[in-house]
């Protein structure tokens, strides 16, 4: 992925795609290592402008929240991890999480956090992203919650890698 002043170019397996970078979004570069080639490079991370509110926010969708509440496999530990993950959600639904830091913050063991995150990935609630050094990155599925410009939500949902799973019967 590389960037010029007006467009972001994402090189896929077959076709290069282009999309405009919003003017009110700040571009910060993070160093990363390509797992296939071992090449070190910079990846742009987009940070939206701050709103006048003192507290952070995100848009949550009621039908998905109800579905999660009705899911009998969404135990207390998994739900707690999900809620803390929501609290760490960055612009355009990016999550940069260290399992160790998350476990320390929540008072859990690293294995408990890893197990809960695996469940959330398996259910399609969060999507696995590229590793940044030794740190995992994830993206919150935009069918559950969204942090970014609402104008970009429909486009974000189109490019999601997994369709959200439906709620268990009886909800």
Descriptive overview:
- With 171 residues, the chain is α+β, with helices and mostly antiparallel strands.
- It folds into two domains: 2-48, no CATH class; 59-158, Winged helix-like DNA-binding domain superfamily/Winged helix DNA-binding domain (Arc Repressor Mutant, subunit A, Orthogonal Bundle).
- Helix content is 29%, strand content 27%.
- The chain is built from five helices and ten strands; from the N terminus they run E-E-E-E-E-E-H-H-E-H-H-E-E-E-H.
- The model is unreliable at 1-18 and 166-170 (pLDDT under 50).
Spatially, the strands of the biggest sheet line up as 1-2-3
* Average residue pLDDT: 79
Query: Which homologous superfamily in CATH is the superfamily of the largest domain?
Result: Winged helix-like DNA-binding domain superfamily/Winged helix DNA-binding domain
**How is the main sheet built?**
3 strands, antiparallel
Distance between the termini: 42 Å
Overall body shape: globular
CATH topology of the largest domain: Arc Repressor Mutant, subunit A
Task: Indicate the proportion of strand residues.
Answer: 25-35%
Helix count equals 5
Radius of gyration, taken over Cα atoms and rounded to an integer in Å: 17 Å
> What sequence of helices (H) and strands (E) makes up the elements?
EEEEEEHHEHHEEEH
Structural class: alpha+beta
User: How many β-strands, per DSSP?
Assistant: 10
* Proportion in helices: 25-40%
Enumerate the spans where pLDDT stays under 50 for 5 or more consecutive residues: 1-18, 166-170
């Amino acid at each position: 992925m590389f960037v010029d002043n007006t467009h972001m170019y994402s090189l896929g397996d077959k076709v290069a795609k282009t999309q405009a970078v919003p003017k009110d979004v700040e571009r910060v570069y993070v160093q990363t290592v390509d797992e296939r080639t071992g090449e070190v490079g910079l990846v742009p991370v987009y940070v939206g402008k701050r709103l006048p509110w003192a507290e952070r926010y995100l848009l949550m969708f009621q039908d998905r929240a109800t579905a999660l509440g009705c899911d009998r496999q969404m135990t207390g530990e998994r739900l707690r991890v999900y809620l803390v993950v929501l609290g760490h959600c960055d612009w355009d639904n990016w999550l940069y999480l260290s399992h160790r830091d998350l476990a320390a913050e929540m008072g859990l063991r690293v294995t408990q956090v890893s197990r809960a995150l695996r469940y959330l990935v398996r259910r399609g609630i969060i999507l696995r992203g590229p590793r940044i050094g030794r740190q995992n990155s994830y993206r919150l599925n935009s069918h559950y919650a969204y942090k970014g410009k609402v104008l970009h939500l429909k486009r974000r949902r189109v490019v999601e890698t997994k369709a959200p799973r439906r709620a268990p019967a009886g909800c």
